[in-house]
Amino acid sequence: MKLKALVVAIILSHSPQVLAQTHLVTGTVKDNQSALAGATVVVLGTGIRVVTDYNGDFSLNQLAEGEYRLEISYLGYQKYQQVLKIEGEQRLELGELVLNLDSNTLEVIQVRGAIQRGEMLALNTQKNSNTIINVISAGEISKLPDRNAAEAVQRIPGVSIERDQGEGRFVAVRGLPSEWNSATINGNRIPTAEEETTGRSTAFDFFPSEMIEYIEVTKALTPDIEGDAIGGSVNFITRKAAKEQTFSLSAGVGQHAQAQDGLDYTANLLYGDRSADDKFGFIINANIWSRDWATDNYEPRRDQDGGIYRLELRDYTGTRETYGFNGALEYLLDDGKLYASMIYGSLRDDELHYKHRYRFDKDRAEVQHISNELITEMTGFELGGEHFIGEASSIDWQLASYTNEFRYGDTPNGDDASYFVMRFDQQNVGYTGLEDRGEGNNAYNRVDGGQDSANRPDTHLSDDFIMDPAKSMLSWVELYKVNVKERDKIVAQINFNQDISYELNLKLGAKYRNKERNARFSDEFYSWDPSAGPVPTLSDFPLSGQPGGADYLGALNGDYHEQFSPVASLPELADFWTQNRDNFILDESESLLVSNGGALGRHFDVNETHISAYAMASYEFNDMWFVMGGLRLTQTDTEVKGYTYIADEDALVASKGGKDYLSVLPSLHVKYSPDEMTNYRLALTRGFSRPDFGALSPGSTYFEADNELNTGNPELEPTYSNNLDLMAEYYFDNVGLISAGFFYKDIQDPIFEHTSIGEYKGKTGVLINRPENGDDARLYGAELSLSQSLDFISDSLESFGILANYTLMDSEMTVPGREEKTKIPRQADRLYNLTVYYDDDTFSLRVAMNYKGEYIESHGRRSDSDRYYGSYQSLDMSASYNLSKRASVYLEMNNLTDEPLTYYQGSPARPLQVEYYGVRGMLGFSYGF
Question: Is the overall model pTM greater than 0.70, yes or no?
Fold first, then answer.
């Protein structure tokens, strides 16, 4: 009988007789500054309840002729009621419902600054959502010293980032690998292109935070969201067409402390408007951020017993430039709208790098001169529409295409665009204090019974040793070449939404993606041709002191520069290579080429299609209970084309790998609200993660410098997870929140990087990395969050507040070949944020601490050979002062404690990499209306 009643209801909802009796009411809720997203709009006595979208818009349907009372509620405001009379016309436009101090509608409890307004939007949206989400608005982002999309999201509970050169790159939810999370722009996964990985996680350091209007973090997926996310989905929403004339201009200058002679600058322009009849609107947003940076780094390389056979002292300097553009158009129809947008983001990193490499095992010292320009460039186009069908139905559609490419710039020249290295060697160094425990002459840290400190690397050079450029012979020139281009040639989706009744809503949809990825890689080594004359030495070039060398590892009060070699100019070395290229011979035995099989793990083509369909229903029993359930089906067809090297025959054979599979992803969400300020939430969901592209490749790549072999595994299965989420929330009248949550994930076929020692082409002791499916794994954790103004202590503290969140996690998985259980790769045990702020309508100050605990990067044969990234804690500060209603000045400071990145084997006392970035700051001005 219930099924029959449902079918009848669906038929009646589409009948002309029913539609003729109902009306559609639309409007926009705002205050005297901007639209109010997340406001609750209720038609009293009917059970009809909607929430305003990010533009403050709402629509009410299925209202018959008559008189109603409309009620609007929003945290931080008094409730507002208005009589609504419906007669005659089927559609009623209420226009803008402006809420301000001077009207007789809502009355603001207190004057709000920009930080508190951002919290109001975030908390109202979270409170009234029917799912477990967190939101950050553009206003809140602008008050943080976060300059790219990845950094902007790290303040959300349970969200963390991975960094490169001190800047955020990859986004992770609840401490899980970034590959197990979905990072999207406007709801679409973005193609990936990155120098050193072959995975699916997108590096968002190329996308400026000023391009973003909102960030949504969904921790429990619904069927209308792409399901390839185990940890959660992070959606970056770009700015849409303006609803009124909008203008904003900001500019700033600053410096990285370690780049003493450098300069940072940024500029952002935003302009939008609408036509006289309001039907056509547009927005244009352009941004540039340039910064001179410097990094001090040291990397001990180790044998199986932990002994250091090589120490690298790396000194980086460079200039990074980030460019962003977002343009959006909108045209309003009588029954909906059409829209189009174009997105562009680019990161260009022009890098100079001097590396002193001390080969304890070979009794030589090397000076490497390295130059490269890394370029990442993403473009996207979107075309779509939203349409009402009658008064109770709507349909939306979108066609999109995205391209992401990584390539090297024209270093040393346009034909050899690469990571360019020229190495000079000095033999017979005579290192002191080394041991031979059967692996050769090595140094050992104290944790392994040696004398070396873990916190201060020892070069083991004698006090009287001097690097002599006349004895430093040209060893080789390396051209490390990478080009990755991934295209989502077409992304097509359609969604149909039907209100069956006041309480029941149905939603159906489908999505299609056609993806291709082309990856090209080689690592070419060239040696001097003896027939061209004597081998050049470093002294044959004009020399100077190493740039920035005098304060290298200044955080350790080191004096390493006293034994550094003079160095040559990298542009002059590039010219020398170009002019003498014919005097060099390619050393195929040392090179990684397609022809010799060494480059196959990163040289392949991918064609992949995703076809998804979903259906979901939501039912609001009353003001307290809400239930949503549904199912998403996703078919993935992946084909990887490459080559296999047959060593015995010294031949290449074309090969093909890949996977085809159907993912069945059900979900159920329940929300219970015993009163207006309390929510209890339950979510049961299923998500998955596709294997990385490179992991499915049948080829392998050998790195001679590290004696390391990375190989693919075409037999990998996708990873699935059954998820349980529980959340309790209590909201304060004065705009605050305290919440607690629990989550559990039962993970099948997790993919991990298995590490072993073996042989490759006659070389022994090779570190072999191969992706494998492990046994089932589990992740569980708790999440606490607090947002509160301090006015509950005293009215005089109404402008002070705290934002805090803490996530505690643990996991376990079984790695084949190891008896004990270990943690999921890249899963951190603890994440927390603590922000203290002052905020009024003139001045705001925010001090923010962010922490991410240590995590395993790759598993070894035993726990003491697992490789970890160490815990990372950053302290940032931002302040702004309003000169007028339209103009302000701001100050930003990042990494105030000069926190280093650490990477180690088994224990922090056995470091593999330590890197210092220094403090950076920016002083700027903004104007807008």
Answer: yes
